[in-house]
């Protein structure tokens, strides 16, 4: 009797294992949902839709983009963390959602280290440092000399307290040993308008959204945070070239994909392969170039390390500058 019972248990276990393996082997057998934690039309949303098209071709299934905006990306990121860990819900991960929000809001709502699983990086977007055309500098050396000669005279407009722009300014002040005042606005649009109008004199923004203002002569580029010089602005040096590799690394905006914690490694591996193949498609590379983005893929482990490194660097900036949301 015991022998029969043991045999039945073993058979059931083997059957269960086989069905799990079969389910993983058949993945994906239904549409995949990609949650974007920001509103439609922004850079994260536009990039996500390009990536979704690439994944659709590789996976042979629809990849539906769903915007869950609110609370600086927290609402959408929560939705990913709470989803079934079956590979059918993914999230667009950004520096803000993975390496800023946990420091400013705490990890009570979303802890990337325990509630999310890295799938892989997707792309980097360079950030251009700019000044109002009236600013008395045409290159980085003159820019730095002017700021050091007049501490507290010039100001910088960010899209809000605790934003990436705010953190980049704090890092700039510390690393360059300058004092540029912080002026928070309600979003990047008003901050750019303030820089164009001269309300603030120093600005940083993603190249994708800044290039039209640069081409129109409304803002003057001084340097760029990017792995290499921009094809559209080949004369503009990177911060690494200028001797500031940490500012260069911090200034770049990266994007990637995450899944709920507990998603099977086999599924994550298949998704990672699909991401790499999608981002190698010349048509998608050209599409990203139009957004000012460059493909940047790697293993889930490498993306996890990048998140951890950015988190550590941002923690140091926030603590040193005493940045708080109620500032």
From TrEMBL:
Signal peptide range in chain numbering: 1-23
User: According to its UniProt record, which protein family does this protein belong to?
Assistant: Belongs to the UPF0065 (bug) family.
Recorded superkingdom: Bacteria
Could you identify this protein by its name? Answer: ABC transporter substrate-binding protein
Q: Say yes or no: keyword Signal present.
A: yes
Stored Pfam families: TctC (PF03401)
Q: Which UniProt keywords are listed?
A: Signal
Q: Does the keyword Signal apply?
A: yes
Q: Which SUPFAM superfamilies match?
A: Periplasmic binding protein-like II
